[in-house]
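Lab channel / #folding
Pinned by the channel admin:
"Please post every new chain as: sequence first, then the structure tokens as a reply. Keep commentary short and put observations after the output so the thread stays searchable."

First post following the new format, from NK:
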Amino acid sequence: MAVLPLGKALNLAMRRSLAEDDRVVVLGEDIGTLGGVFRVTDGLAAEFGPDRVIDTPLAESGIVGTAIGLALRGFRPVCEIQFDGFVYPAFDQIVSQLAKMRARSRGRVRLPVVIRIPAGGGIGAVEHHSESNEAYFAHTAGLRVVSCSNPQDGYRLLRAAIRSDDPVVFFEPKRAYWDKGEVDLEASPASLDRALVLRKGRDCTLIAHGPSVKVALAAAEAAEEDGVSVGVVDLRSISPLDVETLQRCVAETGRAVVVHEASTFLGIGAEIAAVVTEGCFRELKAPVQRVGAYQLPYPPAHVEDAFLPDVDRVLLGIDRSLSFGRTAAHV
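Reply from TO:
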């Protein structure tokens, strides 16, 4: 086992994929000589050359459009979008072309394109650098949407995404790029449609993805000190959702709290609340609770700590869930 930060684990996943398959190419702004703004592609251009690790102009629509063209010619492109808020110029290419080509061709055309997006807040960045826009893409049929939360999963999920014949939007929690963890570099690629149970609990189930997994685990530890047993499920795949695992875990505790950085309004948590309620209605002891950001544009860096869900807000969500059955009113 190697102990690596998430950014390095992702780098090694791309390095191995480039070495194993000549059809894999990596493209994006500043990914070659600079190695990316977060250095996730550091050293790849020197090892594989500018024909396979391609610095592009500052034009996200062009990056994704070029990747679609490359995929149509048999390549397996891996795009880097420099920051989450920069992806919108490429939105039309992604949802109108990339997502729909297989259906439009009745399955004859496949587009194995990976779009890596550093996502979420917590690094004190300026406007357009801290968004959580995964719901936009999860709402579009034809795309796989994945979010990693730790170095081991980052390595395995990215390898699986690059091997996939489906287009994959791959969210990387930027504030976790420097978080270290053990990585088995010989581990097989992970499934792109299965959640992972990180912690078993008796009283409540927390469901999270990406950067919120770390917050959920910390909240579960804090709740344990107060005698509340809380399980944690890492979604990993946002689309498709692993409904079976979610419903099984929630049925075991009867209570669920969904945690994410995006606004709760029409967010991933709303969809999870619906599928859990549909499948576990008789087992539920309380309505599914959602803990997320407010329905506001992402704020200036000096107040982002008040904007993002933290351990205290997750614990409050757990308390709201536990209050049902004990009192008639929310706490």
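NK: The chain is about 35% helix and 20% strand.
TO: also worth noting, The mean pLDDT is 96.
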